[in-house]
Amino acid sequence: MKKLTIILAHQHYAKSTANKTIIECLKKKYPDVKVRYIADLYPDFMIDVDMEQQNLIESDVILLQFPIYWYNMPAILKRWFDLVLSYGFAYGEGGDKLKGKTLIVSATAGGREESYTPIGSMHFRLRPFINNIESSTYYCQMNFAKPILGYGNIYSPEFDASPDVIVERATNQANRLIAALDELLK
Ligand SMILES: Cc1cc2nc3c(=O)[nH]c(=O)nc-3n(C[C@H](O)[C@H](O)[C@H](O)COP(=O)(O)O)c2cc1C
């Protein structure tokens, strides 16, 4: 079986509901999976590039799990991209260490799906906000799997979600993710 690694980028994981639910479901399904809590590992943003690169070399499928922050990935994950996917490692001369590996995104959004439309309050669909990651993946000669997206993960009357509802939505997202991962890990 192929090897999965999870890069979890959540700035306040202790307070997480959605991402924590997804990670717990994944750990149950794949007990040996390695989860790298990059916000906790690198609170000062001083990423151990060698360690992160070694982890990627040893992995076949790389899952990026994160909440949407300002229509984007959290800053720690952008920093991870900037430092870990370096010239000579991920691209450029000799930069073929990620070639043929598969990257999959699982992102949780606070906004509801109906707000992520041209006539909704978010103005755009959520999927195009992931295009930067898709392009980066191709630049590194990797395969890009269909992103798994979840909506309505904020506990607020405006967003109509209680903690129980968020757990239910996140569990549904985890199940969709596991179905995709089972295929990718064959
Ligand atoms: C700094 C910050 C920015 C956020 N920006 C967005 C956003 O642009 N769009 C959105 O739908 N939700 C946004 N949210 C809501 C988070 O995506 C949501 O709280 C998270 O997915 C819930 O997952 P969790 O329970 O694991 O924290 C933002 C939250 C924070 C803290």
Walk me through this protein's architecture.
Helix 1 (18-29) links the parallel strand 1 (4-8) and strand 2. The protein contains six helices and six strands, in the order E-H-E-H-H-E-H-E-H-E-E-H. It is 35% helix and 15% strand. The protein is of the alpha/beta class. The protein has a single domain (4-184), classed as Flavodoxin domain (Rossmann fold, 3-Layer(aba) Sandwich). The structure holds flavin mononucleotide (FMN). The site of flavin mononucleotide (FMN) has 17 residues, from helix 1.
How are the SSEs ordered, and which strands pair?
Layout: E1 4-8, H1 18-29, E2 34-37, H2 38-41, H3 49-57, E3 61-67, H4 75-84, E4 102-108, H5 131-139, E5 143-144, E6 148-150, H6 163-184
Parallel strand pairs: 1-2, 1-3, 3-4, 4-5, 4-6
Helix pairs in contact: 1-6
The protein binds flavin mononucleotide.
Flavin mononucleotide binds at residues 10, 16-20, 67-71, 108-111, 153-154.
